[in-house]
Amino acid sequence: MQHGYNPPDFDEARLRDAPDARFEPAPADGVLPDDFFATSNLPTYVKVDGQWRLPRAPRMDGAIVKDPDGLRVTEGRYVRKGQPVAIGYAEDGSEGIFVHTTGFLGSAKGGGEFQFMSSEVSREKPVDYARMAELLRQERERGGHIVWVVGPAVLHSRGRDVVTWFIENGYVGALLGGNAVAVHDIEQALLGTTLGMDRTGRPVSGGHAFHMRAINRIARAGSIRKAVEQGVLTEGIMHACVVHDVPFVLAGSIRDDGPLPDTIADTVRAQELMREHATRATMTIMIATALHSIAFGNMLPAYVVEVDGALRPLTTIAVDTSEFVVSKLKDRGTHQAFGVITNAQDFLHVLRYFVEQPVNAAPHASHGVR
Amino acid sequence: MQHGYNPPDFDEARLRDAPDARFEPAPADGVLPDDFFATSNLPTYVKVDGQWRLPRAPRMDGAIVKDPDGLRVTEGRYVRKGQPVAIGYAEDGSEGIFVHTTGFLGSAKGGGEFQFMSSEVSREKPVDYARMAELLRQERERGGHIVWVVGPAVLHSRGRDVVTWFIENGYVGALLGGNAVAVHDIEQALLGTTLGMDRTGRPVSGGHAFHMRAINRIARAGSIRKAVEQGVLTEGIMHACVVHDVPFVLAGSIRDDGPLPDTIADTVRAQELMREHATRATMTIMIATALHSIAFGNMLPAYVVEVDGALRPLTTIAVDTSEFVVSKLKDRGTHQAFGVITNAQDFLHVLRYFVEQPVNAAPHASHGVR
Amino acid sequence: MQHGYNPPDFDEARLRDAPDARFEPAPADGVLPDDFFATSNLPTYVKVDGQWRLPRAPRMDGAIVKDPDGLRVTEGRYVRKGQPVAIGYAEDGSEGIFVHTTGFLGSAKGGGEFQFMSSEVSREKPVDYARMAELLRQERERGGHIVWVVGPAVLHSRGRDVVTWFIENGYVGALLGGNAVAVHDIEQALLGTTLGMDRTGRPVSGGHAFHMRAINRIARAGSIRKAVEQGVLTEGIMHACVVHDVPFVLAGSIRDDGPLPDTIADTVRAQELMREHATRATMTIMIATALHSIAFGNMLPAYVVEVDGALRPLTTIAVDTSEFVVSKLKDRGTHQAFGVITNAQDFLHVLRYFVEQPVNAAPHASHGVR
Amino acid sequence: MQHGYNPPDFDEARLRDAPDARFEPAPADGVLPDDFFATSNLPTYVKVDGQWRLPRAPRMDGAIVKDPDGLRVTEGRYVRKGQPVAIGYAEDGSEGIFVHTTGFLGSAKGGGEFQFMSSEVSREKPVDYARMAELLRQERERGGHIVWVVGPAVLHSRGRDVVTWFIENGYVGALLGGNAVAVHDIEQALLGTTLGMDRTGRPVSGGHAFHMRAINRIARAGSIRKAVEQGVLTEGIMHACVVHDVPFVLAGSIRDDGPLPDTIADTVRAQELMREHATRATMTIMIATALHSIAFGNMLPAYVVEVDGALRPLTTIAVDTSEFVVSKLKDRGTHQAFGVITNAQDFLHVLRYFVEQPVNAAPHASHGVR
Asked: Which of C155, C144, C205 is nearest to C180 (CA)?
């Protein structure tokens, strides 16, 4: 929380030889010259008459005004017509203004330009669905192994249909999840609810037991595959995996009800089965599951070795409503994860929308994006 | 945290006259009879030989087995073929099993059926976009006053385009927000960035000052409307409001940079302008802003008085990435708010998608939803 | 999102026979009479000249003013000296003002008084540590089985010491957790770091592997108990469990590194071991672990059967930094959970502080609480 | 999401001249040699017979085993007694193993050592209260200007008492907040509730209006100071500010009820008053308010100019239950903020506890921390 300050070396050539800062008069009250220098909160030195000076009252988002008695940082609204305002964009001293970004050694900021939005994961960052859709199509075309790791939140209404669509259309090389994702998918197929809620989110009478009835029905059939073969399970995500021969791993946890006959209760064995997909993965999409995402992230290399031996980063997309889960994934070492902070069902809807856009058309056209 | 227990009155007619519970043998090891009674964690009494008994080892998601020495709750996986398992769905005693939901007076649960997903706001609930789209279309048709309250998160890439589309297509009666939403919309229009990030989320060099340059440009023009008239501002949300005569209120806050000439720095005056829309509102959509949502929620009645004097609830949709913001809105008294926990740009994309669906077609059809 | 309105029955005796509302003049500009009726956003009827009327411009936090042309809701700041303002506290019509809380059937609110802070779990609610400390002391005195379910967040600096203190002082009947909590406790004991961070949160060089080295050391010893016996493990939470014969269950998960020899990799077996403590539990404290809290919550009855056969609720305290985890626990059926939204290490520090207060002294006295 | 790979330059001296990696036999099945090299997920080259090789099946938290047919990453549990395992700690090639941290240019990770917990703000980081307490005591001793920026969450039960204690004991140079913090402090003083809840968090009948009654009472008195002078307001935070001449700024917002006569409704004027404290601040503590923290952060320099002209960083502590608020503060440019993720009332309790510890004693001693 406290670090010493290392002042700039003003004898360094680029500072010693820098020109004086330039000033232009404000064109009107409360209006700055177009090219005003915009301040940050870091130590900022301005060269006036050959001397580097620190303006008074520093703050970010201000302008630097030359008063008769010295330099001062102020907000644009207080500038009066004709007052001299510092001009320029460069922060390296080359235009007479130097922002000392590395003065506080050991600080978290360290160095580099003053920026907004420097956090790695934030709901305030735009999501480039067109790019994700393009990567997904590329992987399918080159026969990559796209591993989906999903939590039960993907099951809500359309989310379930969209995952099924991705399976049916060849975008899923393997599906990893837990007992719950299969249970609630099957609950939906057999009884029309998820976690006892209908598709509008209303609890159904007796609904708290519906997942137990679904499990019992599969226990009687013997396995998910047998339930499909016996005509018990006729639609949904697990059905699509069976029908389209997409391998799935349902890894057990202590939260599991049942569990289903297909669920691997032994976590070491479940890790081994997941690891087989980790070593083959060429792209990974992890949606709404902290446990399975971090477990799978632990097993993943950060890169893919191509057939010719070249390396490329392993595209790893992590979707969650909370920054925390994605940050935690990174904090456990999966630094390459690209975080999307949103609702699982909406992510799936929008991703499918972009995947279905004609490849050669400008994908944003219908939305008027330039 | 501690409440006394009020046992059931077994002399009450419905309990006194209830039949004994029925039991059926388990069809196989680890498989329950189809109609097994599924337990909750609440006190559950089972009538055997005319006596109400509490099974041992209570827990939820279990079944009730009759052992030689009494009743026991267990999980399906431990049931052996032929063991007698309690049968039934009714929890009111009418089939010999009584769940005492009101035994702990003063408890948060209080009474009512044992349920999952009883929280009001959760990312784990499905979102019924088709219904929201229908309500929105109805309001437009009957000339309602649809008030949108938006935070800067709507500006990210496509979000901004979709809000503009809603304005252009008559779905926005008034737009309420703060200085930031207008600043970053205009930053995007004039300089191509939001908060100094480009459309893919990468910081742009010098970007931390772009919003200040946008503000300065509007300050020079005199107002947003004048900037449109002077050809300075040619696209985006604020431009659409001006061109389509959609009133907007930019309420000031202490976080504001600038502020823009249009921003109402006096918060009491800003409340008055917002209140004019609150008294006229027939539907409200609040997206990604705690401050403005709660402020506007405070001003809103929970209902609309129709032309004929009849009352109906005021549809109030609150969208945020965090349950906390929506719960807080409710905790401040806006109980009618329907919460959608998702990313603003995805919400807008999916809502537009459903609004554009043909009205008479099954709206889900193209997504394969039954 | 839309429900019909069921108007009040004004022929009902309590409404038909209710008196007219009373009005008093405002004592000064912007000042209301002391006993002003404070509005909510629900339909509110005011009896004037024997007629029930709806005031114009309804909103919460307002007062009702009688204008020459009717009733109007307004904010206190707009009231002028002498204007007649409605008076009273009763909302049931008995003082001439009736708030119709049940008008919108099927609405989430349903009925009951208009309230703030109706959500069950919120960081905005006070936490009654004195009461929790009292319950904890009572359980210890009567020889209850207090089950602690903990995640690795309890390990941070003082948190670890406080858990150890609770073990040493007889407040822990069993400790349930995962591989990680033991691994990082042992990492701390052997190498001085947690997750590779030192006690101030700074990453240590090579620290990413420290937990692996800790696991390897225990693997060599054969088990945690053997490591204690061999003098390898000399302090910390797991050490205290061994020395004080507090049983622990380390339930396996697919995220586990190692795992430790003591970790139960088979999740069905781990459930069985946890369930033994669930059936005996008389109080439960769950800290900073969604997986283990929800798993254990699933196994817990909502009540304890006392020796004399009487039932009382099972005190269940759930601590997490996020409302989501606690709400999810409740949404999975553990309705009795009392949520504390805070940081694990601070919870532990404050709980110990209150447990250590002299029992008969006013526990808040030293903090000046009345 | 995709970046090219820049392989290491194996002709560089440090790699060309590096020794072969060393291997030692595993001492037992599932046990690694003490000094095993622990893998990360980054490209890792191992020198064998003078050749740099990439082991197969890379992942983090593994060991490198030499098989007859090459190198392989595996988990410790699969190693068999006697298998040769790579040894060493250095990741720079000097011991024959090279982790190529900068291979993926443009990646978020960029370079630097593979680490866990690299995120800047996380509930999973320990909080060094002893250090914060020491800084606070130092500032008081040297007459610094400690600015507290607080949201209403500080008011819950003991939180309010502790803030009052800090004011009374000279640790508060100025108190900045909004209308709500003063309203609910005064509601507590006059009516015993906060947001209509009593000290245990239970809603009180009629409680939704208590804050309006508190406001009305101050409106009648004329101001907070007058209410103190008239004996209306006799305890609490605002009372302590008046009595101890601690300046406060209550900045207005559109969410304000009332507002109180002391609240500055004009946000530009409120900014000016806050800014006076920003320019004088030598330490800042921001608790549980996004709006006021970010507003004040915008005004703050990142440093303090000492009397002798030397610069030091401005200690800025930001406390919130959510990582998001602290990350947002940083994303708006206040990079120097040190985040504490916890509950406001617990933060205050623990901070006071450490401030009260004897300065020269080991502050942790009573908690058994080494």
From this structure: C155
